[in-house]
Fold:
Amino acid sequence: SPCVISEKSSHITGSLNVEADTSQVIVGVATSGSVAYTQNNSGFGVAGSGSVNIITGLTEAFVNETTVISAVGGGGISISASDNNIIGAASGSMSVTVSTNDKKPASGTTDSSGSGSGSEKATGTSSNNTKTQAAVSVSPSAAISVVDSTVHAYASDSTLITDGDINVSATSNETIVSFASGVSGAGSNATKGSFALAGAGSASVNVINVEAEAYISDSDPTKGRSIVSREENITISAADNSLIVSNAGALGISSAKGSEWGVGVALGAAIAVNVGDKRVRAGISGANVRSKKDVI
Structure:
């Protein structure tokens, strides 16, 4: 979003304000869940979620190859660019898997020992129900947020003359709030062997890339162009105010029960990665700059 004054000559009696502002807000939420229940068989459940949010912006305010002369007693000259971006991201997943055995008694199994009286007795469990069972539950989630912002404010190859202040400023304000979580539970109960695996993982990845520049420049100082505040200050400033708040969490719960053996495994892994790449510059290059008070 550029705001430009270029290739013009102006005489003004008041103030001159050249302003460019960009504001973007993204809120992204992703959730998922799965529930699996099996009887006399193994069970498997998966739930995954991801939230990906990207903001790119170019914000520029400048005066280029222009002459602006303010009358005596006139106001100041301001060239300002600002960028305000916010990303709120959340990703969550939950998976639950349960595997059980009905454990019905066997029917018609004869015990022929003893006096031969012909008595019969049900013993054990049926062969169909004597088995090894497994329950597996997996739950990953990820939240990814990227802000790529460029903010420029400048006066180039121009003459600016006024009694008031001359301000050239570039400001970048970037905020990312990101949360990712995964919860997984697995339970297995079998008459022989039992295995339960619960795996939960989450990742929160956040990147802010900022370039904020404010400057006064002249490609050919011999042309006699100048930036002059006859009574006040000249200020050139660039600032970046970036904030990242992130959290990643994972929880895995498993339970395994078998008459001969049982193995329960629970895995939880979480990672939060935050990257800031900033280039913030303010300066004067080749320009004739004069003020009655200060050049800041």
About this structure: The chain is about 0% helix and 75% strand.
